[in-house]
Amino acid sequence: MASRWRWFHQLGSPKWFFEKSAKWLPWIWAGTLILLAVGLYYSLWASPIEARQGQGHTVRIMYIHVPAAALSMIGYVAMAIASTIGLVWKMKMAFAASRAIAPIGAAMTFIALFTGAVWGKPTWGTWWEWDARLTSELLLLFLYLGFIALHSSFAERAKADKAAAVLAIVGVINVPIIYFSVKWWNTLHQGYSVTQKGALAPEFQVPLFTMIGAFYLLFIGLVIMRLRVEILMREQKSRWVADWATEQKAQKRGV
Amino acid sequence: MFRALLKKELMVARRNWIGIVIPLFFFVMVVSLFPFGVSPEAPTLQKIAPGIIWVAALLATLLSLEQFYRSDYQDGSLEQTLLIAGPTQVASAKILAHWLLTGLPLVIVSPLLGILMQINHGFIDSNHTWVLMLSLLLGTPTLCLIGAVGMSLALAANRNGMLVAVLVLPLYVPILIFGTSTVTASLENFSYNGQLAILAALLMIALVMSPFAAGRALKISVS
Predict the structure, then answer these.
(1) What's the Cα-to-Cα distance from A52 to each of A40, A43, A45, A112, A123, rounded to whole Å?
(2) What are the chain A neighbours of B154 within 8 Å (beta carbons)?
(3) Residue ranges of domains in chain A
(4) For A72-86, what is each residue's pLDDT tens digit?
């Protein structure tokens, strides 16, 4: 029993994570770069243009839009899960993780909204429509911003962590609303075709799934980088951070 | 214990009754600005009335939150109360008092606004007024419930007012959508039962979740 939960306890140790993640990062970045290179090649050059969408090349925006939109929701769920873990098991790392995810998730949401607007102009003939999915995605952006605003409004970090965690958990109600919005309200935004069999031709699937993979890795990489900074800030008084800093300084002098 | 807490909230409010009347003035004044700002003609007013009355109700609820939580937090009585009663109980008492003293009065004065905005010509002879009142009756408790969570979270933050609005407004949107569409459907002589049912469902969800979340948040704020 003890060994089965060991990874969980280790994950709770900032020092362990900081040391390990330094080794993970190069692999994650390498994977991101490869997938991005392949995905961008396919999506920008080697994939056909969509006949039905009129303007032809606008379909290429989807290869950014879909992954960003997916991660905007998954990022929020991850933030809410981390917040729950933090509140229930009082795990320091979980709070740091939710704080690290927030701005990146907000950026993903913004990218999804922005690319959606750019795509919508030639296709739907409008930059913005008060459609159920668009509106709920906009609310997601507001929820992320609320989380960040609340977290940065406290003098004490412990209080900020807990209060923002409660907000993240309350706001998670919005995520299923976004996901199912195209099904519940038949407004402008099209339904989901990505996971349905046969709805998407293979020549569109390859670039799309590669880009989704690339975005996942990019997201994880960015979160880990922010988390490392977050750990250094939170643990700045502890011994190992001081040791790490002097080591870093010595290395710089050596080079 | 709950009864004692509620009694205390009501007593504090009675001694500071101007504070209770101000949100009501605010509600009426905000709504009456629109005929000046947009157009005093009946067709235009009828069209925008549901949205404006609902937005005004939402803002009045939001602005009145401060006085139910802030002073208790600042003079330390909130902390003392939390020592003798459970956080969920304290939060529930505050939410109920807040609704009784701001939500319910809003519902009661809403027919007056219906007249100002021309949604009905007589006083209560029109069906639309009842629908407006019913939608507010189902919607304002949810506003109080959700607002309590946001307010309790922001208590210990070193900025106020705007922060609560930023936290709470995104969560208010569904209530605004269904509240407004209830009244609009009634004005256009469509069936509005579905929207009312959703408002009731939102109220049920908030009723189950938010006293707990608000209690939790109060505890975090005083810790």
Answers:
(1) 22, 17, 19, 22, 10
(2) 150, 153, 163
(3) 63-237
(4) 999 999 999 999 999
